[in-house]
Automatic annotation (TrEMBL):
<dbReference type="Pfam" id="PF14905">
    <property type="entry name" value="OMP_b-brl_3"/>
</dbReference>
<keyword id="KW-0472">Membrane</keyword>
<dbReference type="Pfam" id="PF07715">
    <property type="entry name" value="Plug"/>
</dbReference>
<comment type="similarity">
    <text>Belongs to the TonB-dependent receptor family.</text>
</comment>
<keyword id="KW-0998">Cell outer membrane</keyword>
<dbReference type="InterPro" id="IPR036942">
    <property type="entry name" value="Beta-barrel_TonB_sf"/>
</dbReference>
<feature type="domain" description="Outer membrane protein beta-barrel">
    <location>
        <begin position="645"/>
        <end position="955"/>
    </location>
</feature>
<protein>
    <submittedName>
        <fullName>TonB-dependent receptor</fullName>
    </submittedName>
</protein>
<dbReference type="InterPro" id="IPR041700">
    <property type="entry name" value="OMP_b-brl_3"/>
</dbReference>
<keyword id="KW-0675">Receptor</keyword>
<feature type="signal peptide">
    <location>
        <begin position="1"/>
        <end position="39"/>
    </location>
</feature>
<feature type="region of interest" description="Disordered">
    <location>
        <begin position="680"/>
        <end position="704"/>
    </location>
</feature>
<dbReference type="InterPro" id="IPR037066">
    <property type="entry name" value="Plug_dom_sf"/>
</dbReference>
<dbReference type="InterPro" id="IPR010104">
    <property type="entry name" value="TonB_rcpt_bac"/>
</dbReference>
<dbReference type="InterPro" id="IPR012910">
    <property type="entry name" value="Plug_dom"/>
</dbReference>
<keyword id="KW-0732">Signal</keyword>
<feature type="domain" description="TonB-dependent receptor plug">
    <location>
        <begin position="75"/>
        <end position="176"/>
    </location>
</feature>
Amino acid sequence: MKTFNGKHARNNGALVFKLSPVAAGCVVFLSALGTNVYAQDATVAQATDAEGKPVSQVTVTGIRRGIEAAISIKKNSNSIVEAISAEDIGKLPDATVAESISRLPGVTAQRDPSTGRAAAISVRGMSPDFNGTLLNGREQASAGDSRGVRFDLYPAEMLGTITVYKSPDATLMGQGVASTIDQRTVLPLDFGKRTVAVGYKRIWTGEKNEAEGGGTGKGYRSTITYIDQFANRTVGVALGLVKFSDSGADQTRGDGWGGWTPTLKDVGVPAYNGSDSIKVPGGFQSVKQRDPQGNKSAMAVVQFRPSKEFVTTVDLFHSKFTDDTRKNGLEGAVCGNNGSYDPSGVLSNAQIVNGVAVSGTCSGYKAVQRNDIVGQADTLNSWGLNSRLKSGDWTFTGDLSGSKVTHHTDRYETTAGRPGNATDLDTISWTGFNGTSNLSPTYKVNANLTDRSRYVLTDVNGWGGSVPQAGYVAVGDQTDDLKAVRLSAKRDVEWGPVTALDFGVYHSNRDKERVSDEGNLTINNLQYGSATVPGTETGVTPNGIPIVRFNPAGTLGTVYTLLPKKDQPIQTDKNWEVSERITTLYAMGNLEGELFGIPYRGNAGAQYVRTNQSSSGVVVQPGNPSGCGDAGKPCASYAIGGGAKYNDFLPSINLSFELPYDQMLRFGLGKTLSRTKMSDMRPGGGVTVNNSNPTGPRLSGGAGNPKLEPFRAKALDLSYEKYFSVNGAKGYVAVAGFYKKLDTYVLQYGTEVDFKTTGYYQPGMALPTSGPYAGSTVGILTVPTNLNGGNIKGMEATVSLPFAMVSKYLSGFGLEVNYSSTLSSLSLPSSGLGNTKDTPNNVSLPGLSHIVTNARLYYEANGFRASLAAKKRGDFLGEVTDFQDNHQLTYIKASTLIDAQVTYDFDDKSMFKGLSITASANNLTNAAFDRFNTTPDVAVEHYRFGRTYGLGASYKF
């Protein structure tokens, strides 16, 4: 049988809380003997010393080192993968994991609208929830309602490689329908000697954004890594520290109120020159925000290897991310009204073109001056204990691990302006209105909005209804705790094409809880209460209007009193707990052989997954008693629970055919699943009488679904790869195609039920009093439901070309380009999205951009390393957090980001040996982040971030 290079074992971790005595005893026994974390399925072959221990040997440096290591990972893997490898210790291509892996084919990122940095990751046109994310092969907890991790918690400086698995594999735990992203820290015994690396980078943000009213900020990233070996290389230690701090730049944000552009008749404004069908601006929000952020991370890895047969690895990872945003701006309706205290105005001095008030003035303007702060703190603690014993033909492995994330948010909103009973209001004028976007005009207010004697903290527009609301506060906490154990055995065999058998058991316990407290800020609980805006600070909105500014921190209890809000969405949607107990049995055989004279390698196996899930929450009866919820007293409510048990069988096969001239043809086929958002698995909800039902008043309710099962899919992957090496320079070209058949997809779905049988009915609950459903408990319950899915298909093309292969005169230059095209037959109801760019009834799949392109041109010679990179992503349906801290689907406009970086490495003969100097520039074109509803040309929200410059130095010895 033919022997292949690059045979390997995979490092797949696992997670649990309640451990059986037998399982715990096995792991402790193996730990006493020692082991390495599962060697990743796609690792670069290591050199060994005289005792057979691996020693890192680097034959290339810098950019080429990172590229060629990633090529080796891809080439040697049995699965279809993409990879990023560090150019040196602590030197991935970008500062964040999300930015690095978004350069891979079929992978793209959504930017954070607060900072402009890459945040959520989509793979092959699917949302972040369809990715499984691992650290050292182990499943990770997440910070939000969903399962998608926050990559800001994993500094790129602490990682050596990141591998994106695109095809399923029976030994890979925590995998997703779209991909599985495995982040790897370094292993100290893989290094031949003590290594210390330190780095410091100064950052300037928001540069060249003055044209839109933005400002600049500054920050830094510092890192230190220590790697050493002791006791004749039987003990290895790796320690790492990273600190990041950014003061934040003054970024600009324009909100066009969803593109609402009414006619005079729509908003009750008197006719102008006899016409009430003239279009006028509806309303807008113009805000500057400063978003200081910070991260402190620490890593520790200890290995003990007394002999080649025994290895133990302990790894610890800690990260704390903080985000404190301050927002100041102006909001309000223009001619119409937006609240019970906001009257409609009168249009005057207007220029009308084709039924549109291109310019004009409206009276009765009530400006709402916003001064808000939003704080966030995420803390990740991840650990693992892994031991491996090799005895004869057998290898036994035990792994214990845990991952816990705590997510805390606090949001304070304040409003300043004329009190609700004021009659001496202002006027607002505009020019340049195009009839479709409220962000198109230039606005001017004919009053000094910075006059603190006139503009006060108060309930300006009556946004609280009958309850005073001079502001709002929301404090929330989420905890995601995941623990696991994994026991496995592997044996080399000679069973025809089967060369090794790998089998084991994995068990994980996961508990996620969300708690939220919210309420209105009032001035002495008075309907027209007011207070002077503290301080003397003023500011200017992005559209040039002066306003008052102050920091609301510390005003609760001094300026404001709190009126708790206990309505149904807060109690049911933001207070819940979900638990999962998952046991997986798996077996896989490694394959080698020949088929029609063509040698192949690969694997075939299956997982049997047993799931036991449960959840608890609250059912609320809106309107019972009368005036509950918004008035500060709770509505009638009671606890509810639920759960489900189900099984899944997930077979998979991966084959790699080695063709002549260093070509590879890969085939992958399998069944996968991705678990749903844990917030959708809550049981809580609310039921009320729907008086607007077209056939008469009827009970209507909405809730989570504790019986909700995962997204399930079948996946087919094909990949052709050609590798080449000329004059020591390596490159490759690849073309891949994929097809995923989603058997189920989770959607909000309403069915007719008798509420007496659902747990959402209690004696005394209000029932319809008239019509065909009078006195009936039968109504419509809408919950997340497993419905029919659809298909996703696409192709990816990649070229990695060192120009030395073309001509020796181009030595040092190179190019990496990838292109992906993705289509889907799956469409979702547009409920909750308003108008959409597709049809009135359906929207495209979240996360799907039809075309994504990446390109990177680099040069490396004579100590210099330089690169120019561009990422282009088409329009897509993304997800943002709305003003109520809920996730909201929204269309995001296409954008192209261009980054540049130059590094100089002092050579070994220099007195500065080991020193590198780096300068970088990100978002060179100042690409905007625009949300839209109907067409990309009409933005409903517009952000500008400016450029980010960096200058830093690193030193390795």
